[in-house]
Amino acid sequence: MLKAVIFDDAPPIVIKGLQEMIDWSKYNIIIVGSATDGNTAMKVVNDLQPDIILTDIRKPGLDGLQLIEFVVDIFPEITCVVFSGFKEYDYVKKALKLGVVDYLEKPITIEKIEELIPQILAKIEEQKQYNSLKSQSKLSYKEQLERAAMELLFKGYNAEQKWKNIIDQLSEFEVQSVTVLTSSERLNWKEGTPSTYSVIELHLEDQFIYVFYKFSVITSYDRILEDDVDSLEAIVGVGTTMEKKEGTLKSYNDSLKALRYGQYVAEPGFHSYDELKRSYIFQKIM
């Protein structure tokens, strides 16, 4: 069921009436909490993370607008409705700009709320469909990115522009750099956030290739590895970090050289091309 909360400084009997005199269950809604001041309301939102908020626009402590700003920023999927008194139109305009579904003019009646509920449910359904389409779109881009990366490895520099274009479409943040790692075994990575990094995995014969497109600096791959570093048996070649997306193929080729060195010396762990290229042994092997 959808979780709803009511925030209003009206007498408790009024809030109780709204909770009990409306058959919320027939709308697949359950009232899970209430508050009479803004600070308590914020705690309720944090603790319960409801689907629907019905809130007075003016109340003690944190007012309704400040609460809505907080909700829109932290929990944008929550649907909000505001109660307003006479001559509070400036507040209502600001609330509507923030994205509330609608407003109800006081005094609040059961009839007014029941008339508004279908609109609330329609908004929630619309948001669900949008999120679903957004998820499918991202998945599609992810698949395109994997195919483009594979083409890059087989077709070389001729496929780099396509690779660059797809990264630009996929990324919410500007890609700062790209690094390719090639491993002798499959690795598990912690999931990055949209502002840190994203990684795609490619499997090519006996190699597991990991392409990191980064939105901030990664100082150590050990820290973002889900596997236990101390018991790591894989040999991993770390390619040169390229500031331009067009350098992905070079990073991959460098990672192969670092991998071959690690296999030659039979040492599990990470082997960085940038650190190895100054080594006499590495130069001799390569």
UniProtKB/TrEMBL annotation:
Q: Which residues carry this modification: 4-aspartylphosphate?
A: 56
Span of domain Response regulatory: 4-121
Instruction: State any GO BP term from the record.
Output: phosphorelay signal transduction system
Query: Which UniProt keywords are given for this protein, alphabetically ordered?
Result: Cytoplasm, DNA-binding, Phosphoprotein
Please give the InterPro entries that the UniProt record associates with this protein: CheY-like_superfamily, HptR, Sig_transdc_resp-reg_receiver
> Origin, by domain of life?
Bacteria
Q: Which SUPFAM superfamilies match?
A: CheY-like
Entries under CDD domains matching the protein: REC_YesN-like
Question: Sorted alphabetically, which Gene3D superfamilies does this protein's record hold?
Answer: 3.40.50.2300
Gene Ontology MF annotations: DNA binding
Identify the Pfam families for this entry: Response_reg
PANTHER family (UniProt xref): HISTIDINE KINASE-RELATED, TRANSCRIPTIONAL REGULATORY PROTEIN HPTR
Protein's name according to its UniProt entry: Two-component response regulator
Its ancestry begins with:
Bacteria, Bacillati, Bacillota, Bacilli, Bacillales
